[in-house]
Every structure is written in C-alpha cells, then in structure tokens.
C-alpha cells in the first residue's frame, strides 16, 4: 500500500505564490424535495429524518463535488450494498492524513467493505493542497486545518474545513438518506486532528469521534454537549508523538498534548468522575475507558498500541499496523453504541 507519512517537506512551507481558483466539477443536485441543513448555520442539530423520498442514488462508490470558499471540493462516498433510499442510514466520515488523499484513506480504513457488511455510508473527503491554494507547488500536500496540524490548510488559517463538513452534509442530504443522529467522524493523523476539532465545534452534528494517531489541537475546546471519544495511538509513533510534542512547529504547527491528555480533557468535559476501566486487551493493544460520565454513554476511551508506529491498527500493510486490534471494526462498534441523543 502506497501511503505517505506525515510529510515534513519544505514545499509545504513555501506558501508564497498567489492563490487561484481550482477546477470546477459541476453543480450539486437540486434540493427542492429534501430538507437539508444550512451550511452557514453553525453548531445546531440537523433536522431529524424518519424516512426519505425522491432520492435516486443506489449502492456504489461516487466522487461528488461541492462549492466551498470559492473552490470546488471533492468528497468520495461509498453507498453500501443493501442500501434502501427510503430508510435513514448512519454516516461515517473518514479524513485522510497530511500528504494522503481520499482514495488512500478508503484503502487504509477498509471502511467501504465494512460498510457493505454492517450497513452505513462511508465518506472520504479530500483535503486541500498547495496548488489549489497558491497555483503551484507539490500536489501531494493535501491537508486539513486541525488548528495545531497540518500543512497548507493549517498554515493558511483562512481554510475553514469545519464549514466544508457542513457543506458536505448539506449536499449529502440531497443525495442519500442519512440519519442525522448517527453521523460520526474518524480520521488518521492530520485527519484525526480535524475529527477532534469537529467534536469541539460541531457537537450538535457529530455524534461521536474516533481519531487515529492524532490529537486534540484546539486549546479552547468547548463542545456544546458531551461527545463520546475513542482514540487509537501507538507509543512509538514517530510523527505524532504519543506523549505529545513540539515537532510540528518546524512546519508551521503548534505544540500538541499527549494521547492520554487529549482523551482526559474530553473525559473531564463529559463529566467522567469514575475509575478507568479496561475494555479491550489483546497482544500489544489495550483500551481503557473513563466511567461515571454525564451521561454514562459519553465515555472517553484510549486504545494504546505498545510499540505501535504511525499507523492504523489492523491495517498491517501500512507501517507495521498491529494485527492485535482492528481499529475500523472497534470504532464502528463504538459508533453503533453512541448515536446523538
């Protein structure tokens, strides 16, 4: 599997060219018969859906585009086998890492196959790169504005990936029958930073998150409701250090907390006052959850891979991902148990 590490490339720092508009890919479908969220509305719940009508998308994998901040932004969607366009279905966003893309994230997470087996819609958005922002430079610099991390999207603070997610949700609601109470976010590395940011800023839209190898990068995170978190991280991660670090400052990022601290901060916000409880242990992988949360379902959990590198647990073809823990399967089980109230 060809996947890049978190690239510390000089090209991602030389952001001096003038910005240009990216290629247009076509318009979104009409929303005349579908109630969809206003992408400018901010952190408010999406309208409930008990059924859908007039939706024609069938099972398959699609690349769709939306206009956002004057650019055409792409996102890939896998609609699973057995999808019924009249019945609301869960949605799982999976954000790629810095220097990667939506195709590689689909391969890394294996969510499309899992979606077919379990029945959810998998969404793989594409981050923005240097050429799209400045007209020239390395195209393999796709990234997200995760506040502390990473690449051109984070260095250029005008990139608003939170509102990009709002815009995708608006568009997605015109195409597929999604359940607004079961919208989840996961991500790898830089994408995990964005998943944490969504939990902080879109708690009314994102039911729960499952970051992999990325931290809480927002220092003033104040979610509007308790958001369940399941975090995966290797202790030997050479890109985003398990114990936190300042290594991202060399590429325009900021210091970030450790994996245990990222989870602890959410446990505190979720009112968790009970003892930590082990929920999984196999080989080099152990998961521990905070208890006594308010509500009890708003737990914050950390799965630690002892000796694990910058990898996706269960994906052994990339950077020695452990076979002792299947992150994709465990996060789906976690998501199933944590719809938005």
TrEMBL record:
> Mind telling me which PROSITE patterns this protein's record contains?
PROKAR_LIPOPROTEIN
Kindly indicate where the leader peptide sits in this chain: 1-21
What domain of life?
Bacteria
Q: Name one Pfam family in it.
A: Abhydrolase_2
UniProt keyword terms in alphabetical order: Carbohydrate metabolism, Hydrolase, Polysaccharide degradation, Secreted, Signal, Xylan degradation
| Entry GO MF terms | feruloyl esterase activity
In this protein, which residues make up the domain named Phospholipase/carboxylesterase/thioesterase? 88-244
Could you confirm whether the keyword Hydrolase appears in this record?
yes
Where in or outside the cell it occurs: the entry states: Secreted
GO terms for cellular component = extracellular region
An example Gene Ontology biological process: xylan catabolic process
Major location (coarse): secreted
Stretches the record annotates as Disordered: 25-44
Q: Which PANTHER family match?
A: FERULOYL ESTERASE C-RELATED, PTHR38050
Any idea what this protein is called?
Answer: Phospholipase/carboxylesterase/thioesterase domain-containing protein
Organism for this UniProt entry: Corallococcus aberystwythensis
């Amino acid at each position: 599997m060809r996947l890049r590490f978190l690239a510390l490339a000089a090209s991602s720092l030389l952001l001096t060219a003038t910005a240009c508009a990216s290629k247009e890919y076509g318009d979104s479908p009409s929303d005349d018969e579908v109630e969809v969220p206003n992408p400018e509305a901010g952190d408010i719940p999406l309208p409930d859906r008990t059924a859908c009508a007039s939706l024609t998308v069938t099972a398959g994998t699609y690349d769709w585009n939306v206009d956002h901040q004057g650019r055409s932004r792409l996102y890939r969607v896998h609609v699973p086998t057995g999808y019924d366009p009249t019945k609301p279905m869960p949605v799982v966003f999976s954000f790629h890492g810095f220097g990667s893309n939506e195709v590689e994230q689909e391969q890394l997470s294996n969510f499309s196959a899992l979606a077919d087996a379990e029945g959810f819609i998998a969404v793989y958005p594409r981050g923005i790169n240097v050429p799209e922002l400045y007209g020239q430079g390395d195209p393999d610099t796709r990234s997200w504005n995760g506040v502390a991390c990473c690449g051109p999207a984070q260095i250029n603070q005008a990139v608003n990936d939170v509102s990009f997610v709002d815009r995708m949700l608006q568009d997605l609601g015109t195409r597929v029958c999604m359940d607004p109470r079961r919208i989840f976010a996961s991500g790898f590395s830089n994408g995990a930073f964005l998943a944490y940011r969504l939990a902080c800023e879109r708690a009314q839209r994102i039911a729960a998150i499952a970051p992999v190898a990325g931290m809480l990068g927002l220092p003033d995170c104040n979610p509007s409701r308790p958001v369940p978190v399941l975090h995966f991280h290797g202790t030997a991660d050479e890109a985003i250090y398990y114990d936190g670090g300042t290594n991202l400052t060399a590429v325009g990022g900021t210091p970030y907390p450790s994996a245990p601290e990222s989870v602890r901060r959410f446990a505190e916000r979720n009112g968790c006052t009970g003892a930590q409880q082990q929920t999984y242990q196999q080989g080099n992988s152990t998961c521990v959850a905070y208890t006594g949360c308010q509500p009890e379902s708003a737990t914050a959990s950390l799965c630690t891979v002892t000796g694990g590198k910058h990898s996706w647990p269960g994906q052994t073809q990339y950077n020695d991902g452990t076979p002792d823990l299947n992150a994709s399967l465990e996060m789906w089980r976690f998501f199933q148990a944590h719809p938005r109230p």
